[in-house]
Amino acid sequence: MSTEPETTKDGEPDGTEAAEVSEAQAELEAQRVERERIERRKAEKQGPVESGTKLSGVAADLLAAVRAVESGEKPVAAVFADEPRRAAVAPEPVRRLPRPVAEPVRPGAGSVAAVAEVLVAGGAPQGLAGQVLGVLGEGAGDRLREDPWQLLRVPGVRLEQADGFARALLGGESSPGDERRGRAVVGWLLEQAALAGHTVLELPALTAALAQRGVPEPDDAVQNALAEGEALVFQDALEAEGGEGVEGAEAAVRVLVGLERYALAEESLADGVGRVINSVPKEGGSGAEAWEAAASGAAGELVRAVAGHGLVLHTGGAASRVEVAELMRVAQGLGLRVWGAVHGPVGRARFAALVGEDGPGVVTVAGLVGGLEGPGRDAEGAFDLDLLVVLDAPQLDVETAALVVESLPDGARLVLSGDPGVLWSVGAGRVFADLLAVRVCPRVASRTPDPGPLGELVSGIGVGELNQVEAPGKEVVIVPVRDAGEALHRTVQLVADSVPRAIGVPVEETVVITPGHGGAVGTRALNAALKERLNPGPGRFGGFDAGDRVVYSPVPGRVLPGVVLGADSEGLRLSCSGEEVVVAREQVERCVRHGWALTAHQAVGGRWPAAVVVLPGDAAQALSRPWVYTAFGRAERHLSVVHGVEQALPRAVAEVPAKPRTTRLPLLLSARPGEDG
Questions:
Q1: What share of the chain is helix, strand, coil (3-state, %, to 5)?
Q2: Apex CA 447: angle with CA 638 and CA 441, to 5°?
Q3: Beta strands 549-552 and 560-568: pairing type?
């Protein structure tokens, strides 16, 4: 690795906050409210309410907290901290993307006023009426009067704020032991756990969290939530150590509690996987002989596995995509209807080029599931295809995976391909890792290595080793910094000058990756500095100017990188991977951010010719092997590391693996007949 000389210090650190991995949870929550606010804002006569406008005290704090989560300015409370949360990218060149479909929630002005009246009575800002209606539905005002802790269902509301609201409405009747409070806190904790990736929680973990939040009888609170149908309970038998039970002894059982939506998704996914595994795949060409004849080269093992199995897991780095592309061409040549699905528009364009102009079609997962791209559906509602290949499989959350598998016709093959070392999905679950662990189908590990010094570096990180690599072409450069101010200065210098001049990669093909949004060297500070240097302007269009690099989050789990074209009466106009997107004015603050600098969670699934990874001193606690592996792996030709964490970096690579997520999928899959891969 090359090391650039240190520069003189040009500023003192101004107190960076820890770049917690839960920052990406704020992204998810910000996107979830998008579908609801547009119509409700029209219904609110007073128009949009800004954080703290004409409010003070508790009301201002509450509105500010909700707005902060909506805009991504602050993370959701990380009750169950988990590993960093990624973001994907989504859709193809030169056409206009459809607007996100809004939820059919159109409350009238009377409903808004009724909810606003209750909110004001409880000391909460009336501007939250739209969000409350979206969560609680018609009659939300009456529901809040009867159970003020229902306010906890609004994203961004903290428990202490809901408690204050309840005290204002109920007076002396409000108490920490109120049965209504206990039920609400159970649901809130399970939602927080889902944001951290868990589909369920073990009962002891849930009751401990309830006790920490002042619920005097945690077991009773859980039982009440179960009785009201606000949560589900599961008793999963565990194997004794070594896989054998003890004769005459009761089997060990773990009790799990979860929300219905994730429980149903996991069970549906497990059923669908079992169906795909056990259905007879549709033959192509002359049958097995034709597959065998076509199985050659790097993709030979993968082709043979797919020939005789409904589900195949394929693992490997970026270079392994050539094997998947060859498999798709082979299957198409055998007469099968073949489609590939990726998680973003940049990845789609790149993979389509790899498959070839005459090869099978490539779509985004969101477009496929939503019916906006791909083969369409047959008379029974199933995808009209014989083989589906999903790349970047670690990004599949349990709900999306369930939708994909449920939509496969009988006899169709499914290949899930991805790099198991990257950050897991934004949504709940760890589908790809769970499938790899249970060994219910063939698993094919790519033997195609990622090339060059960057490939060597990232491969080492994947196995817990941060190796020094020879980089004669300055493929890897380490830039030591002493403090946050110097890190900010050197990052801007690298992007605007050093990388274009010394490496030949233009600014628009360089991405900056940092652990979090906040702090002196988070995405907000970096984007402000990069805008000032690269595209200065007054922010004419809601804080943006033509030419600004941005990221647009239209729906949960999707991040589209783009460039601002301008604005008109319809809203902010963006170009995202060659497609024109119009973001309505009321969505801009919530859904669009500057995008020269991203978190690793936003960048996962994409690759750029050059990447500048910024590791300020206060980032040490946020680092893990998956985070470093993901961030460093976004670079194709050149990687600069602005390094201020000293030994925390090799320690994170060697000692901090992915944090576990509690899911039921492995047990559900193990209970079904399948094939041992």
A1: 45, 15, 40
A2: 120
A3: antiparallel
Query: Which SS3 state, helix, strand or coil, does residue 593 take?
Result: strand
Rounded average pLDDT over 83-95: 34
260: its two tokens: 């219905």
**Which of 290-311 are b and which e, b meaning 16 or more Cβ less than 10 Å from the residue's Cβ?**
bbeebbeeebbbbbbbbbbbbb
Query: What does the alpha-carbon distance between residue 517 and residue 519 come to, in Å, rounded to a whole number?
Result: 7
Tokens of 74: 């602050």
pLDDT of residue 340: 97
Tokens of 178: 């109120």
Bridge partner list, 339: 361, 388
Q: Which residues make Cβ contacts (< 8 Å) with residue 293, sequence separation at least 6? A: none
How far is 486 from 642, CA to CA, in rounded Å? 9
CA-closest candidate to residue 178, choices 122, 221, 123: 221
Indicate the helix (H) or strand (E) that contains 276.
Answer: helix 260-278
Comparing 6 with 57, which gets the higher pLDDT? 57
Beta bridge mates, 258 = 232
Give Cβ neighbours of residue 257 (< 8 Å, ≥ 6 apart).
186, 190, 200, 201, 203, 206, 222, 226, 231, 232, 233, 234
The predicted model gives 49-53 an average pLDDT of 36
Q: How far apart are CA 395 and CA 320, in angstroms?
A: 17
Structural contact between residues 113 and 60, judged by C-beta atoms closer than 8 angstroms: no
No. of H helices and E strands in the chain? 26, 20
Report the distance separating Cα 266 and Cα 429, nearest Å.
Answer: 8
| Euclidean distance between CA atoms 215 and 217, whole angstroms | 6
Average confidence (pLDDT) over 323-342: 96
58: pLDDT confidence band, cut at 50, 70 and 90?
Answer: low
| Interatomic CA distance for residues 592 and 611, integer angstroms | 22
> Which DSSP symbol is given to 7?
P
Is 495 in contact with 512 (CB distance < 8 Å)? yes
Please state the pTM of the whole predicted model. 0.81
Can you say whether residue 564 is alpha, beta or left, with left for phi > 0 and alpha for psi between -120 and 50 degrees?
A: beta
Compute the distance between CA of residue 366 and CA of residue 343 in angstroms, rounded to an integer: 7
Query: Quick one: which of 189, 188, 163 has its CA closest to 175?
Result: 163
Q: Per-residue pLDDT tens for 270-323?
A: 999 999 999 888 777 667 888 999 898 899 999 999 999 999 999 999 999 999
Choice among 108-122, 316-330, 466-480 with the minimum mean pLDDT:
108-122
Q: Tell me the pLDDT of the chain averaged across its residues.
A: 84
Structure tokens at 104: 């059919």
The pLDDT tens digits for 606-648 are 899 999 999 999 889 999 999 999 999 999 999 999 999 999 9
HEC letters along 67-106: HHHHHCCCCCCCCCCCCCCCCECCCCCCCCCCCCCCCCCC
> Could you give phi then psi for residue 162, rounded to 5 degrees?
-65, -40
